[in-house]
Amino acid sequence: MTTSSLGLRHSRYDVVIVGAGLAGCATARALARADRFQRRRILVVDRHPDVHPRFSGELIHPRGAQILDDLGLFTALRDAGGVEIGGFAVFENADAQPVDLSYADVPDERPRGLSIHHKDLVRTLRRELRKDHVELVEGWNVAGLLRDGHRVEGVVLEGRGQGRHEIHADLVIAADGKGSTVRKLAGISDEGRETVGFTAGVEIIDAALPRPDYAHVFLGAWGPVLAYPISREPDGRVRTRVTFDLPRVLPAKGPALKQYLLRTFVPFVPAPLSTQMAAAIADHRGHLHMAPTVELPAPSAAMPGLVLVGDAAGCSHPITASGMTMGLRDAETLGQQAQRRADAPDGEPWLDGESLRRYRSEHDRYVPTRQALAKAIYEAFRGGEDGTRAIRRALFEYWASGEAARSRSMALLSCSERRPHVFLAEYLKTARHALGTSLVPQHASRYPMGDRVRRARGAAKLARTKLGQVAQVMWAQVRPGWLTRIEPG
């Protein structure tokens, strides 16, 4: 098959990006801007001819919003219906006053993030991409990788009923999500990948959110309930997404799942939002929107001729809403490396082996911290064991102690703070408080001694576990960059 039948201008490219979602499109824009002489050939391929009708997160923290602004994409997304988000309101239960975790309290960061509906996000980014010297091909799968020994040298594309076509490239970038086909074809291990549960969701127009333009977290049910604006309609109304965290083994299916949500989750949300939520669940036609919750410890993010970005390079529980921001940081880092090599002579790869080593070194510094934090926050918010319930109670008391405590936590949650020793210090403060408040006499009237001892033991056990996890994260941070090697697949 010829390149003209694919609509391509070339048979060889400097970079082929697989996946035209947020991470892929942002990476393409970052590379296009780094190519100030427009000498480079950049191709983006996606298997979906339009937006994949999937249920996914769309919340971008201020750090990611700033990257979008730097890439000239933020205004287009906001104008497409994106809603600027001021932070998180966290409710320990339906009757509690919320804890306000404001982005504005984080030093040296913009005060608002961005939330946008998935279909608006993808369509806007692809439209913006067509303004650059970037080629975009939709509706083609990657069926194989071209190799020369251990080095990846391109992709084999396959269209429905249209045969296969080989595209050669100096670099392939896998931006095709947590179930990355490219990662599998490259033989990069996804050891530790686990589906830990499911997320179900509904949408509400003009939801009665206690804090307008905030993301909300409601605790007390089996798992957290999240509610956040995702789009501003042309008539000014705001669409809100509500999600429910479900176990790996679903307690009910089909129509029975709606009854389970009404019985098990809705009572833990304050009125009048709970009334709207119940109506949205009951009135939803067909099956509820569902998506698996996947945890994938960060695999090797680079090998000769190939790098992984976004969820393809590791993902965690969505409770911290960090996935999209991390994908944007990957795009930013690759753009910086491309800019460093903007004057590379013809005949040399634009992004050479040193560029890939630097990318992987930087990626390995911030992704493990994000994953450890997401796991710790989910354990505390889920509160499924004595120890995690003690940690959760202590976390709310810590947040109530003052603005500085909330600011430090928000810096971690919003991906502004990536240093693992800060995460460790914050976690141990909470664990220490949990140990103390589980045993002091002032709580005797609320909890029997046996229960308090179990909570204290559970909190201590969790703290020991986190010490081991954070030790690994800290090594990723302090490890000299020259120790990072690009391993063959």
Brief description of this entry?
The protein is α/β, with parallel strands linked by helices and 489 residues long. It has helices at 3-6, 22-34, 62-70, 74-79, 118-129, 181-185, 255-264, 273-283, 323-340, 353-382, 386-400, 403-413, 420-439, 449-478, and strands spanning 12-18, 42-46, 59-60, 83-85, 87-91, 99-102, 113-115, 135-138, 140-148, 151-159, 164-174, 194-205, 215-218, 225-232, 238-247, 289-295, 302-303, 306-308.
Structural account:
With 489 residues, the chain is an alpha/beta fold. It has 3 domains: 3-81 and 117-190 and 296-351, FAD/NAD(P)-binding domain; 194-294; 370-481, no CATH class. It has helices spanning 3-6, 22-34, 62-70, 74-79, 118-129, 181-185, 255-264, 273-283, 323-340, 353-382, 386-400, 403-413, 420-439, 449-478, and strands at 12-18, 42-46, 59-60, 83-85, 87-91, 99-102, 113-115, 135-138, 140-148, 151-159, 164-174, 194-205, 215-218, 225-232, 238-247, 289-295, 302-303, 306-308. Strands 1, 2, 8, 9, 10, 11, 17 and 18 form an 8-stranded mixed β-sheet that branches. A 7-stranded mixed β-sheet has the order 6-5-13-14-15-12-16, sandwiched between helices. Strands 3-7-4 form a 3-stranded antiparallel β-sheet. Helix 11 crosses helix 14 (449-478). The longest helix has 30 residues, at 353-382. It is globular.
Secondary-structure topology with pairs:
Elements: H1 3-6, E1 12-18, H2 22-34, E2 42-46, E3 59-60, H3 62-70, H4 74-79, E4 83-85, E5 87-91, E6 99-102, E7 113-115, H5 118-129, E8 135-138, E9 140-148, E10 151-159, E11 164-174, H6 181-185, E12 194-205, E13 215-218, E14 225-232, E15 238-247, H7 255-264, H8 273-283, E16 289-295, E17 302-303, E18 306-308, H9 323-340, H10 353-382, H11 386-400, H12 403-413, H13 420-439, H14 449-478
Parallel strand pairs: 1-2, 1-11, 2-8, 5-13, 11-18
Antiparallel strand pairs: 3-7, 4-7, 5-6, 9-10, 10-11, 12-15, 12-16, 13-14, 14-15, 17-18
